Amino acid sequence: MKNLTYIISLWLSYFGAVGQHNSLTDSLKNMLTQPMPDTSKVLILDQLGRSLMYSQPVEAMKYAQEGLKLANQSNYNKGKARVLNRIGSILRISGNYTKSLESHLASIKVAQESQDRDALARTYNNIGILYSEQKNHVQAIEYYQKTRKLAEELKDDNLKNIALANIGMDYSFLNQLDSALFYTQIAYQMSKEGKGGDLNVNLVNLGNIYKRMGKDEIALRYYKNSIPKSITAENHRALSQTYLDIAEIFRKLNRSDSTIFYAQNALQLAQDANIIPTVVNASYLLSSVYESINKARAFDYLKMAWVAKDSILSIDKVKNFQKVEFNEQLRQQEIKQAEQAYQNRVKVYAMASVLVVFFVVLLLLYRNIRLKQKANALLQHQRDEINLQRNKAEEALTQLRSTQSQLIQKEKLASLGELTAGIAHEIQNPLNFVNNFSELSVDLVSELLEERNKVYGERDEELEKDLLNDLAQNQEKINLHGKRASSIVKGMLEHSRQSTGERELTDINQLADEYLRLAYHGFRAKDKDGSVTQFNAEYELITDRNLPKIEVVPQEIGRVLLNLINNAFYAVNVGSINVGSVLNAADVGYSPKVVVSTQVVDNHVEIRVKDNGIGMSEATKSKIFQPFFTTKPTGEGTGLGLSLAYYIVTKGHGGTIECESIEGEGTTFRVELPIK
Fold first, then answer.
1. Domain containing residue 655: CATH number
2. What is the pLDDT of residue 552?
3. Do the domain assignments include residue 150?
4. d(Cα 91, Cα 136) in Å, to the nearest integer?
5. Both 530 and 627 in a single domain?
6. Do 566 and 630 fall within a single domain?
7. Are 613 and 548 contained in the same domain?
8. Which residues have C-beta within 8 Å of that of residue 130, sequence separation ≥ 6?
9. What is the number of alpha carbons within 13 Å of residue 445 lying toward its C-beta?
10. What is the Cα–Cα distance from 247 to 435, expressed in whole angstroms?
11. Residues 535 and 662 in one domain
């Protein structure tokens, strides 16, 4: 009998809570009876839907749909966007997530067309809640971020605070507690500064996050700071849950007296405010504490939890029945709409039949016209064919004239592709340093934050200084290697950039060093063709440290160096293959090597590229600077590289380029560029 009385009291409290919005609902209904513009009426119907959607979703939907109809009739897009958003929320509460999303997306479309950013922000927030209820917290966070961005543009601190709090909450659901803490702390700080939101809610949320992180002392501090504000606001729901969270922490710490004190306060408030889930959880907690102290009281609390749990199931049944009823009414509306659509289709078909007859007549007329046009078209086609053949002949001539310039351009572009692997190798080293020191810096910051979070007096200031010094050194190293990677990228961009033809003071030593390394790594990457032994060769740069900077076009001289060095590596690679085809290269003492050297000779800068490869015959050497002449197999060279190099050095820079070669021993290319 006692249990039955308690269940009845819970039911009466539940349905009494539904009536809390009656005064607002009656006031809005009375306003509808007064004369007013249609735009104002749409907004009142939206507010009626909002006040009823949790207690009477069917009636709420009726008012929202009436508002949508009126907004369409009056072409009031601002009201239309809000009512569509409201319909989406009502559908979400009723469990119809698909229709809810469709309504919200329709609201977004109207808001975007009318540039109503406030409606757009609130709809994004509701879509986030929709995804959150479906446990899709990642998608929910994306929409909360959109709300936050628009709120910042609108300078709406309250809406921004709501979005930040929601983001923090969903990150906690994902158990990404660092992110949850970051956003919740921002919302909390805004609330402290009076910039919207609910300070008490943010305090409780921070307590919940720290509780999940296992930082019980910090969690207790936030929970206790929220208690006076909940008492002042008479927010029994938040207060009872806070008491329960504190009790659970004390239970974890094996402090039975404190656990019982806060759990009993939570239970009493939850009973007074009819917060049945909290009644269940508090009763179970008290039962577990008293189990080893007073088994009779433990059993009483256990019975109380059972009774409250039964009442939740009964209330859920009522809610489920309301959802079924609501969805059935929606289904009936869809049937009516389908019938109306069918009647419209019948009318369309009738009109289509008339149009078909009309088009048949037009088709017959068109056919007669086409027959007359065909005779003229045949004659015109013959004239067009003659003109086409003449144009083809002219195009062939133009194509022939442009072939040479295209081949030259292709040779220039080909050099960029050969450098790709070299660039990747060169830039990987500084990037590895950046990544390693960045990871180390994150660990140092974590240690520093852990030390600074200690109680004053327990902090090791000497350790903090060491950590800060280490962090500063790491940042200097990251900056150093970042600049190194940046210089590599800058150099490659300059190589790939179309030459302007303008000369500038250039360090030839640096240019030679850069292209020697990149050519080697590029050649090794190009040689990865599945062969048994990958290409390897020694290379050396011998520079004159007193070499002056000279005015040249860097991109052009870079292409010359790249071509000469690539040819040298090709020659020593062929030499390795030829020796290896007879016997092991090491057995005959052959070690492939390329040497690049610079020096000043008679007011000229001399660049030498020397290899110990296969060399050339005198007949071959006499033709190497001729366009389209190549000693490489078909498909491996265009024969334009050395001719372009010759043109750049002699015609473009007033220098000389010569070749010395002995067949079977090696080749040396000598480039001289005037200092002035």
1. 3.30.565.10
2. 92
3. no
4. 18
5. yes
6. yes
7. yes
8. 88, 92, 97, 100, 101, 104, 140
9. 9
10. 45
11. yes
Q: Which two tokens stand for residue 276?
A: 């049945």
Same domain (yes/no): 515, 639? yes
- 649 and 561 within one domain: yes
Q: What are the DSSP calls for 516-536, one per residue?
A: HHHHHHHHHHHT-SS-SS---
DSSP string, 62-112: HHHHHHHHHHHHTT-HHHHHHHHHHHHHHHHHTT-HHHHHHHHHHHHHHHH
Q: Distance (Å, rounded) from C-alpha 319 to C-alpha 21?
A: 18
Is beta strand 656-662 parallel, antiparallel or unpaired with respect to 666-674?
antiparallel
Report residue 342's pLDDT band, with 50, 70 and 90 as the boundaries: low
Number of structural domains the chain divides into: 2
- Amino acid 627 reads P
Please determine, for residue 607, whether its predicted confidence score (pLDDT) is greater than 90: yes
Q: Write down the pLDDT at residue 468.
A: 84
pLDDT surpassing 90 at residue 635: no
Q: Which domain holds residue 591?
A: 504-674
Q: Per-residue pLDDT tens for 7-64? A: 333 333 333 334 444 677 888 888 888 899 999 998 999 998 888 887 788 888 899 9
Residue with tokens 């000369």: 503
Q: Are residues 487 and 573 in the same domain?
A: no
159-187 confidence digits (pLDDT tens): 999 999 999 989 988 999 999 999 999 98
The token pair at 283 is: 């009763």
